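just leaving the lab so this will be short. what follows is a protein written twice so to speak, once as letters and once as structure tokens for the fold. can you read through it and tell me how you think this chain folds. thanks a lot i owe you, the record is right below.

___
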Amino acid sequence: MKAKINLITIWTNDIDKMKNFYNQVLGFRIENDLGNYVEFENDGVRFAICMRDVMYVYSSEYRKESFGQGFELAFPCEDPKDVDESFKKLISKGATSIHEPQDMPWNQRTALFADPDGNIHEIFAEIK
């Protein structure tokens, strides 16, 4: 195995809601829509969402309730002002606000929002 991430898949029980969020709210263009699996156009790492029940026949582990924040997607912004503007835009389009933009001790301006399944994600910019 090579230590490299090639694909990120978010498992969901509501593919339509998640597809609309990542397409309409975050702006990812749909590359492949198979109904229960949707892959988005993305430079670098492939990015997809998939119905959790697709994997039920392969492993009972997918039936277990998930808990806690297992991952975070972080989206870069041009500058700190772009973090503020992008956050307002995301919230107005239906993202759930987790924390408003603020300067962090590691020299980034960040804001957190959640997708329809409650996964928390970040937008950020370096503070220069």
